[in-house]
UniProtKB/TrEMBL annotation:
Signal peptide boundaries: none
Sorted UniProt keywords: Allosteric enzyme, Glycosyltransferase, GTP-binding, Magnesium, Nucleotide-binding, Transferase
HAMAP family reported in the protein's UniProt record: Upp_B
EC number(s) per entry: 2.4.2.9
Binding, 5-phospho-alpha-D-ribose 1-diphosphate: R78, R103, D130, P131, M132, L133, A134, T135, G136, G137, T138, D203
GO molecular function: GTP binding; magnesium ion binding; uracil phosphoribosyltransferase activity
Cofactor: Mg(2+)
Ways its activity is controlled: Allosterically activated by GTP.
Annotated organism of origin: Nocardioides thalensis
Protein name: Uracil phosphoribosyltransferase
């Protein structure tokens, strides 16, 4: 597993405002959207392209276009939905699949309650959107779900990550022969006893959707 913490002053600035407890929901939503686009730029560095012959107004030339099959973007419901527009801004022709995962707040274990994904993901580059890589349980379950459908090239885009989650993810995915990359704006200090990232930004879903 490869973890890439995106080091850029605009990423750090937007993340700082997101973390601030006085930031309201509309501002949080629009900053999360901008931040995801910046992360998406890094996350798609290895997106597959193929040569494409075109003619400019001046001369014929060869460039590249996104290769087939199209990439698949998978927001994990609910909070991953708040990252979808930011990702699709850079990959407008990607297909979108949905995965609903819920974390049991007592056991901190994740389970799937909804899915709308293609049956066969072989050969697809998959981009999973999950704002908080906290315990790693949700992301590990989501990645396993995609691998079971044949995915073998997975990048997770997370606003924030915790070291405990990264360690668990690495361990849980050890047996899968699938390269997984995590792209995040920051690696925070730790988890608290409720499984929240410290210092973190609180409950990403609640802040995105204005739940008090
Ligand atoms: N989910 C969140 O929304 N925030 C955390 O800190 C951890 C999990």
């Amino acid at each position: 597993m490869r973890i890439q913490v995106v080091d850029h002053p605009l990423v750090a600035h937007k993340l700082t405002v997101l973390r601030d407890e006085t930031t309201d929901s509309p501002t949080f939503r629009s900053l999360a959207d901008e931040l995801v686009t910046l992360l998406a730029y890094e996350a798609t560095r290895d997106v597959r392209v193929e040569d494409s012959d075109i003619v400019t107004p001046v001369a014929p030339t060869t460039g590249v276009k996104l290769a087939s099959p199209r990439p698949l973007v998978v927001p994990i419901l609910r909070a991953g939905l708040g990252m979808l527009d930011g990702m699709m801004r850079l990959l407008p022709t990607a297909e979108v699949g949905f995965l609903g995962m819920v974390r049991n707040e007592a056991t901190l274990e994740a389970s799937t309650y909804a899915e709308r994904l293609p049956d066969d993901l072989s050969g697809r580059q998959c981009y999973v959107l999950d704002p908080m890589l906290a315990t790693g349980g949700t992301l590990a379950a989501a990645i396993r779900f995609l691998v079971d459908r044949g995915a073998n090239d997975i990048t997770a885009v997370c606003l924030l990550a915790a070291p405990e989650g990264c360690t668990r993810l690495e361990k849980e995915l050890e047996d899968l022969q699938v390269p997984v990359t995590v792209v995040t704006a920051a690696m925070d200090e730790k988890l608290n006893d409720k499984g929240y990232i410290v210092p973190g930004l609180g409950d990403a879903g609640d802040r995105l959707y204005g739940v008090a």
